[in-house]
Design a protein that fits this description.
This protein is of the alpha/beta class and about 650 residues long. It folds into four domains: about 1-75 and about 635-655, no CATH class; about 80-215 and about 595-620, von Willebrand factor, type A domain (Rossmann fold); about 315-505, Class I glutamine amidotransferase (GATase) domain (Rossmann fold); about 510-585, Sandwich (Immunoglobulin-like), CATH 2.60.40.10. A hairpin with a 2-residue loop joins strand 4 and strand 5. Helix 2 (about 40-75) runs antiparallel to helix 13. Residues about 80-85 and about 615-630 have low confidence and may be disordered.
């Protein structure tokens, strides 16, 4: 046992006062004259014994009263439970969920700091402490009281939540014998399993900060809603979630680009459910592709902004290559629209391979033998193959990595869409019941193996399909696009089919945002120069990342801490190669926490874990709040002092 205020024990010298009073009586002696003293000696012996017993009991009660009242003010504690040999470790959960209010005007983090400050100040002067937060490194040494208070003053909210096991791992290097106070709101989505470390003599005290996070609406994700091809009005689908236990009405959300309101909506959302809100916008109002969704939601506000970025490319780069003077002019007519395409045509003997590498879509038109030089670009481009009458099978098999057969249909056979639910046809047709019965074709080749058939004939034989090559597609028709074989170029479906094939490398396959909790993000770009410095910039913030560039894909390593959510520009030298948006993980937006009964169950199932219910305490102090009931010696000493002062009064009255 030890004392928080050992200097108070000097008050035990006051016990000499009642002892001196007992031995030296300061009353004056009064002489009484009796006419007869026959029975005086007998009376003296009878009453003297009772008086001596009374004096001794009163003296003992006074001494014990003073002893225990002095002991109570010295505040005794049991060393083996509350003050281990090494020191006290305090973990303060400074994640964003602790920004919710405990009471009006006080957030959860401030309450945790207040309790920690009280714990440290109540400790003996020679006590050793250490502070851990979510962004702390591994704890290796102890601090004095003053050093701990200084470190406590530096704690602020962090964007990087840590699980219970991660915090235990940080603390494990400090000591095998310590007292561990774990102050948190115990958010289920982040804390993980609560298991104390094995082979450690730790007494872990769980202190729940009751943050008012019962209601929270946040953006879980957002994606571009595919509309009709090249429609001026775009749509973003926003998935909202209500992770609280209250229904919310009239939640307003705004789509903003550089402080300009682009679109707005409001929604009612029930507790524990989600809702999809579609925001329509004119793309011309989006400044430099940067935008964000703002919510009006209280009391949890840290997740009320969701950043997004539309990729830079607005025009698809099309390269059309053919081996002869004659080529499919319908292709040139489709992709010659300069509003949507940057169209370039080459003969096979005059190819600009620099343009080929930067292209989004390459059309190989009329090649009997597909040159092997094109194989190197399959990891960079999407391709469309339009075969001639006669083909060199081995070259087609090499390029498509599939079995190819030369066939000759005798007549043109009607065509139809194989599956309108295929993502390829999203935004192509206004209805799910499309009749293309007038479209006919005679097939010239057949591709076997793993092939995605988009258009087939009435005998379920593929006419237009694609094969996957990593992240890219190679599309193919099964005949030349001439009147001898098909009427497809004169049909209404030809334009949307050609547009959709060219959209394979379009910006809408790129994500609108990336998650900051990930270690890496992947960026598709063909404009990278490894000889120039790579920078990521947002306003005054500039970050030079570790990266790896392989075959048109830039892999960026995100820094472990310090990076904030927002819109960023990736520059290679002075050239802007991509705009991206980074958002915090939404895991902290799930507000469900461990209940009192769940924490009590953890206490009951582990001898290393104690749960402290601070809601039952008005003045939380080291021995009243952080101590266990069986170790609360202050109260015991106070009760005993009151007992003995009452005993003294009873002895004086009835003896």
């Amino acid at each position: 046992m030890t004392f928080l205020y050992p200097s108070v024990l000097w008050g035990l010298l006051l016990l000499l006062i009642p002892i001196l009073i007992h031995f030296f009586s300061f009353r004056k002696v009064v002489k009484v004259v009796f006419p007869s003293i026959l029975f005086i000696e007998e009376l003296k012996n009878e009453t003297g014994n009772r008086t001596n017993l009374k004096h001794l009991l009163v003296l003992g009660s006074r001494l014990l009263f003073m002893f225990f009242i002095i002991l109570a003010f010295a505040q005794p504690i049991l060393t083996d439970r509350l003050r281990p040999v090494d020191g006290t470790l305090i973990y303060i959960d400074n994640s964003r969920s602790m920004s919710g209010e405990v009471v009006a005007g006080q957030i959860g983090l401030n309450k945790a700091l207040e309790l920690s400050d009280e714990l440290i100040n109540k400790a003996p002067n020679d006590a050793k402490f250490q502070i851990l937060t979510n962004q702390s490194s591994v704890a290796l040494s102890w601090l004095s009281k003053q050093g701990t208070l200084d470190k406590l003053a530096e704690v602020s909210l962090s964007d990087d939540p840590k699980s219970f096991s991660q915090i235990m791992q940080k603390a494990s290097a400090l000591s095998q014998r310590l007292s561990f106070f774990y102050l948190s709101d115990f958010q289920k989505s982040t804390i993980g399993p609560v298991d104390p470390p094995k082979d450690m003599d730790w007494q872990i005290k769980l202190v729940k900060i009751a943050v008012d996070n019962v209601s929270n609406v946040y953006v879980d994700t957002a994606y571009v809603e595919i509309t009709q091809i090249y429609d001026d009005q775009k749509k973003i689908s926003v998935v909202l979630k209500n992770s609280g236990n209250k229904d919310r009405k009239g939640i307003r959300l705004k789509l903003v680009s550089e402080n300009q309101l682009i679109s707005t909506s409001s929604v009612d959302i029930k507790a524990g459910s989600e809702s999809i809100v579609i925001l329509s916008f004119d793309e011309s109002y989006i400044r430099e592709g940067q935008m964000k969704i703002e919510l009006v939601d209280y009391p949890v506000y840290f997740d009320n902004i969701f950043y997004m970025s539309l990729p830079l490319a607005k025009i698809s780069k099309i390269v059309h290559i053919h081996p002869k003077e004659h080529f499919t002019r319908a292709v040139e007519k489709v992709y010659g629209n300069k509003t949507y395409f940057d169209y370039t045509r080459f003969k096979d003997d005059a190819i600009d391979y620099g343009k080929l590498q930067s292209a989004d879509f390459v059309v190989l038109d009329g090649f009997e033998n597909i040159p092997q030089s094109f194989d190197a670009f399959k990891d960079y481009n999407d391709f469309l193959i339009i075969p001639p009458k006669e083909i060199e099978r081995s070259s087609y098999q090499r390029f498509l990595s599939r079995s190819i057969y030369q066939i000759r249909d005798s007549i043109a056979i009607g065509l139809n869409i194989k599956d309108l639910n295929d993502p390829f046809f999203a935004g192509v047709f206004n209805t799910k019941e499309v009749d293309i019965g007038l479209l006919k074709a005679k097939r010239n080749i057949e591709v076997k193996g793993r092939v995605n058939i988009l258009v087939q004939n009435q005998f379920e034989k593929g006419y237009l399909g694609n094969v996957k090559n990593n992240d890219h597609c190679i599309y193919f028709f099964s005949s030349p696009l001439t009147q001898e074989f098909t009427n497809v170029t004169n049909h209404a479906t030809f334009l949307p089919l050609m547009y959709k094939m060219s959209l394979g490398g379009n910006r809408y396959i790129h994500p609108l945002y990336h998650d900051l909790s990930k270690d890496y993000i992947s960026i598709v770009t063909r404009n990278f120069d490894a000889s120039k410095k790579l920078r990521v910039i947002s306003g005054a913030t500039e970050w030079i990342p570790n990266y790896q560039y392989v075959e048109g894909r830039l892999l960026l390593e995100l820094p472990p801490f310090g990076l904030k959510a927002g819109n960023y520009e990736i520059k290679n030298g002075n050239i802007l190669i991509k705009r991206i948006a980074l958002n915090e993980s939404r895991v902290e937006s799930e507000m469900e926490v461990l209940t009192h009964s769940e924490l009590a169950e953890l206490d009951a199932n582990s001898h290393n874990i104690d749960w402290i219910n601070i809601e039952k305490l008005q003045n939380l102090s080291l021995n009243e709040g952080f101590g266990d009931s069986e170790d609360n010696l202050f109260k015991i000493a106070l009760i005993l002092s009151l007992f003995f002062v009452l005993s003294e009064a009873l002895f004086i009255r009835f003896l």
